[in-house]
Design a protein that fits this description.
Among the domains are: 2-62, lambda repressor-like DNA-binding domains (434 Repressor (Amino-terminal Domain), Orthogonal Bundle), CATH 1.10.260; 112-178, no CATH class; 256-359, no CATH class. The protein contains five helices and 37 strands. Strand 1 (89-90) and strand 2 form a beta hairpin. The N and C termini lie far apart (106 Å).
């Protein structure tokens, strides 16, 4: 206890504090501080962290205690199994994985391997020609073909991958036989056999067997499932629904389409909603609503509404309304337009701000 009392006295004087000032900061009396420094009592254990903080020292320093140091590495923590391993030491101490980036020089390490490797697990970035198995790296992965999955805390740049690809950074690959997930942008020059997701832009030169999603723009050939993007979507055929914060440009859609901008496609098996214009060269198997113009060369199996002009080459099974001109074949419900109305047979009422022509 004597050493602690002497230490408390020394630290208070070194920090130019009176017993009264220290007592006020700790919420105790100056008599209590005096008893500590005269070895008549010890501070309550709950006060020790606050005392250490006031003096800017650790609890070990407050008690003049030297913490135990990790023992030098006299034996490696793995079996002599014939596997190739790369390890980092600081002095004679083997660095654990959670210590690597606390040592400045260790953060600069990179593993480079010439020739084909089997499985690769690295706490650093990895560069190799090809890998017959899996690759896991705490940094970037740069490789040729990979026979298994790839997981990286950084970017991934590789050839064809026979499993999944997961990266906290960008991904650039050829074919992916599994799913692909990137927290950055992704560019796949071949096909993806599973789902594909990127927090940034997603560009796939080939097709996606599953669903595809992106926080930015999404560009792909055929997609077997749903598509969603925070930006624009441009694809060939879609096997599911399509949702975009921007424009949508595709061929046949086997579901609905929702877009914050324009929609341009061949046909849809569901409804279409757009914040801009809609241009469909085939038919819509549902309703259509647009903040701009609507042009559908085929028929609409539900209602059709446009803030601008509405032009339907075939029939509308429901009602049709337009802020501008309305042109359609038969209409199964009401027909209403702010401009002219030109239709075939209309089952319901007709209202127009301009001329009306019922063929």
């Amino acid at each position: 206890m004597k050493n602690l009392c002497q230490k408390l006295t020394h630290l208070r004087r070194e920090n130019n504090l009176t017993q009264n000032e220290l007592a006020e900061r700790l919420g105790v009396t100056f008599q209590a501080v005096s008893k500590w420094e005269n070895a008549q009592s010890c501070p309550d254990i709950a006060l020790l962290p606050a005392i250490a903080d006031i003096y800017g020292v650790t609890l070990d320093e407050l008690f003049e205690r030297t913490p135990p140091q990790p023992a030098p590495c006299d034996r490696l923590p793995w079996d002599d199994d014939g596997k190739l391993r790369f390890a980092a030491f600081c002095g004679r101490r083997l660095l654990q994985e959670n210590e690597l980036y606390s040592v400045k020089e260790a953060a600069l390490l990179e593993v480079r391997y010439e020739g084909e490797a089997l499985d690769v697990y690295s706490s650093f970035s990895v560069t190799c020609s090809s890998v017959g198995g899996h690759v896991t790296a705490k940094g970037d992965v740069t490789s040729g073909a990979v026979g298994g999955y790839v997981e990286a805390d950084g970017d991934v740049h590789c050839g064809a991958v026979s499993g999944d690809v997961t990266a906290n950074g960008d991904v650039t690959c050829c074919d992916v036989d599994g799913s692909m997930t990137a927290n950055g942008d992704a560019r796949i020059t071949g096909d993806v056999q599973g789902n594909a997701h990127a927090e940034g832009d997603l560009t796939i030169d080939g097709s996606v067997e599953g669903s595809a999603s992106a926080g930015g723009d999404l560009t792909s050939a055929d997609v077997g499932g749903d598509l969603s993007a925070g930006g624009d979507i441009a694809c060939q055929n879609a096997g599911g629904a399509v949702e975009a914060g921007g424009d949508v440009a595709c061929k046949d859609v086997n579901g609905y389409v929702e877009a914050g901008g324009d929609v341009s496609c061949k046909s849809t098996d569901g409804y279409v909603e757009a914040g801009g214009d809609v241009n469909v060269t085939g038919s819509i198997a549902g309703y259509v609503e647009a903040e701009g113009d609507v042009h559908v060369e085929g028929s609409v199996e539900g209602d059709a509404r446009a803030e601008g002009d509405l032009t339907i080459g075939g029939s509308v099974e429901g009602s049709a309304s337009a802020g501008g001109d309305l042109t359609s074949a038969d209409v199964g419900g009401n027909a209403e337009a702010g401009g002219d109305v030109t239709c075939g047979h209309v089952e319901g009422d007709v209202k127009a701000g301009g001329d009306v022509c019922i063929k």
